[in-house]
Amino acid sequence: MSDIVIAASQFGKRYARHDAVRDLSLTIRRGELYGLIGPDGAGKSSFMKAVAGVLSFDSGTLEVFGSRIDSERSAEQVKGRIGLMPQGLGQNLYGDLSVEENIDFFASLRQVPAEVARERKEQLLATTRLAAFRSRPMKKLSGGMKQKLGLVCTLIHAPDLIILDEPTTGVDPVSRRDFWAILAELVASRGLTALVSTAYMDEASRFSRMSLMHEGQVLAEGPPEAILARVPGAIVQCQAVPQIEALQRLSGRFAQCEALGPTLRIFARDVSGETARAEVSQMLAGLAIERLDVLEPELEDVFVALMAEQGRLEKPQLDAPLAAPRDEDTSEFAIEARALTRVFGDFVAVGDVSFQVRPGEIFGLLGANGAGKTTAIKMLTGILPPSGGAGRVAGADMKKAGALIKSRIGYMSQAFSLYLDLTVTENIRLYAGLYGLSREETRNRLEWIIGMAGLAGHEGDLAATLPMGLRQRLALGCALVHRPRVVFLDEPTSGVDPLGRRAFWEILFHLSRVEGVAMLVTTHYMSEAEHCDHLALMFAGRVVADDTPAGMKQAVIAEAGELFEVSGGDVLALVPELRESGFDSVSPYGKKLHVLTRDPQRLGEVVHARLPAARIEARPMAMEDVFVHKVTQLEAAQRKGGT
Amino acid sequence: MIWQRVFAMAHKEWREIVRDRLFFSLAFVVPALLMVLFGYGLSLDVENIPFAVVDQDHSAASREYAWRFIGSRYFQFRGYSESEREAGQQLASGQIRVALVIPPQFGRTLGRGQAAQVATLVDGTFPSRAMTTKGYVTAISTAFTLQSLSARVAAQSGASVEVVQKALQPVTLETRYLYNQSVSSIWSLAPKLIMVILMLSPPFLTALGVVREKENGSIFNIYASNMSRGEFLVGKLMPYVLISTINILVLWLLATVLYQVPFKGSFLFFLPATLVYVLCTTGIGLVVSVLVRTQVAAMIVTMIVTMIPAVLYSGLIIPIVSLGSGASIVAHLMPAMYYTDIVVGCFLKGVGIESVWRPLLVLTGFAVVLFMLGYAGFSKRPST
Which ipTM was obtained for this model? Predict the structure, then answer.
């Protein structure tokens, strides 16, 4: 029997108005952990559903386990060997049923004999560490636990192929790593084949092979290393003063040049690291270069490069002045929270939170769902009265001058707060009207927003028909219509593709550096945390770390040591042994391991004793490593505290 | 059909309904509540009509005439009004719905054996109630006229009042109402309410139950498994039919105990016949659930396709024979009308299958067709 599990050839799926997938051809072999990576609307879900036999398609052929899928009847024949976990956090589970009842239902649905089901259930509950929660209703589980339960339910009939549609979207980084570790373990130990999609570019290294998708097409296919190799070049990260001057000089030469907080990140195509370093240094001659590192490109850089090849890079127009002149408030801080507290009954949603944001600063509020980020923002914007503490926003006391604050700030919510049945122009005019702008001002701002957001040609389109990236920038434009000095952005980039995110951050950067607007951003993309000048990490309603991104990384290094990546051979099998040998911070990362340690020599000894060929390399720490380390530590402390 | 899967589905569904507060109340509380609210609120009996009298005569005769109304159970006396103007204001503000204006010289005119005129002002905003009111006024006036006439003739001729009365009324109507002896509207209403409620509740539950799975994506568990369409539908609908069966009993008890409606037919016929009707309305919910994607849409569509036929084309308010020809055709295409025949027959007429086999057959046909449509429209490999 052939070991080809999925074979698609020129697969195409069309919905009423648009092509979801065009000309997709790929082959997946037994035992592979195959990834589909791409932003929302890339066509990942449509293809996965077709493979699972739950969606018909229009063109091309699709073979699963050697049988052609072309009708409901033919799809039925392979369904017994497939497990599907659709998109959405626990959406396919039953909220009112307990963990165990959910699993039992799936077992009966799949006709697993009672004895076998019981044994398998216990095993899977143990692997996913859900055994302690077996009688808890599904709806009361955390996001990460829901996803693990979804995985157990998908595996209860021991399928040969599992299809997981964005299993980590909306899950905090700690649970995400946990999920990938469990998945990698299961795929390895059971000889499973897995087809998994994700919108997080930084998860690419988890896969053995993958397709990079965008708008229904495959941009690149192959092992992650091969895709990275398709666009050779080097990343240069530098800190130069003045930053805006450096950015202007570099962006003339390099198409991919962006600001991450105080750092600039440049993708130098087709040159070696040393050449890139020399070229950048030369171009920055005369400026104070504080730091300059050369790194390897990541998948997101490659994605953007591939899109740039197709001429689809988006450049916002940012010439006209954006915000009001700076004279009206002279306070040192644009946002200041002092011991802010909010209590709901017995539950402390936000406790004793203090931080300051200066004009022109991008401040990031990080934290898992339920950490209190949104509650804090609501108090500062005057929507929710605090139970204690004080705050000043844009020069006004948030307790006394709620209305004044609202007229001085811009707020962009997670849902983008647009009226989807209004056109672009109508939305902007509506916001202009709400803030009482004059006719003259409205015309100016309308023009500016259209230019800034790249909406020219879309003025008469309904907001509902815009792609996510444009919609997001329209929402930003509406939040900026009255030239606020302070802007609050609540998860502004969820669901937006890397190009859109890049253009978005470019605007934010310009606003902060050139116009001096203060910004408070919450995000769950750890890679985006790097864009912020300053970060506050929230955990269980409290700020547990408050520093620059670089400072946070330094603190973790001082506490737990440098980050090392272990690769080559079956390194995943080493996890228990490493933990026993006293390496507390070990986490699987694709086929590799990430270990934080101050004793790399001993790490080498332990690893090489078992796998002489394994490589151990030092890696620059990412924000995600910081978050995972911090939260794991705090959770351990909380458990010890007996709460 | 693999029963293990069917029962797993049914068991899961049952637990979800019982644990979800909204579904639970929709299933068990709402039907009984509707029965009570509609039963008390929709009474078509016209009694205790508030009225006032403008007595411009102040004679014994005018007082006696007014007393005929004051003493009647159909009217409720709200006092004398000073003038026609005042009575008009009372009518306008809704304090009274009828005003009797007795002209000056009323007693004297009658005494002379001449005809006197009484003006009756009736609030006509609800035509059917106004017509009924007019009927009561006419009847009381006629009785008064007849009595005063008989008294006069008796006084002149020397014969007794009874004899004269009989002579003056050669034809007397002896009306006996069959099936609803006291013409109490609740007797006819309660059985029809069972029809209305069983037209609303099962499709709502079914459509929401199926669409909920579509909306949140758990339907993919079914699509992705080997469970057949038939197994899914049977397992999914089983709890809803069971709930509706419980509701049949609850509604029947409310009708017979709370509203004291006599049940003359056979319960052993009523129950299975009603079950056929429930299957039929459940089928409506199933067809709706196949057509829509969201719970909101399911609710609106179900509302439209069930509420209107149940109220307008079922014989609830207007008898089918009184409908225009177009409306009558519509009524015949809806299941509600057929069940009305069965439920009214069972309660008030005490008839069984020998008289209502035809509507029962039609309902069975409806149920079969609706389920076939639902089955055909449900695809495990849809195109969107």
Answer: 0.79
